[in-house]
Amino acid sequence: MNSTTLKLKLKSINGKITHDNKYSGQNSSWCVVEVYFTNYNGSIEEKLEQFCRNTEWELDLDWDPENNGVFFERRVE
Rounded to an integer, what distance in angstroms lies between the CA atom of residue 10 and that of residue 27? Predict the structure, then answer.
């Protein structure tokens, strides 16, 4: 799943995307997406985990818990 598809899915559950970028390092590149929710709950957490299942995206649910923020990243070639 590319970042455009991920962002569409996040918007469908009322996620506000605050950062979407690609970073290049010496040996690899990463695509990251930061998203916040005003109504974060267990149901949304379950959907986020489903979005990442069987994809290359890694999800950090504890990235910004005070502000209901989560972080997605994946390695790109």
Answer: 29
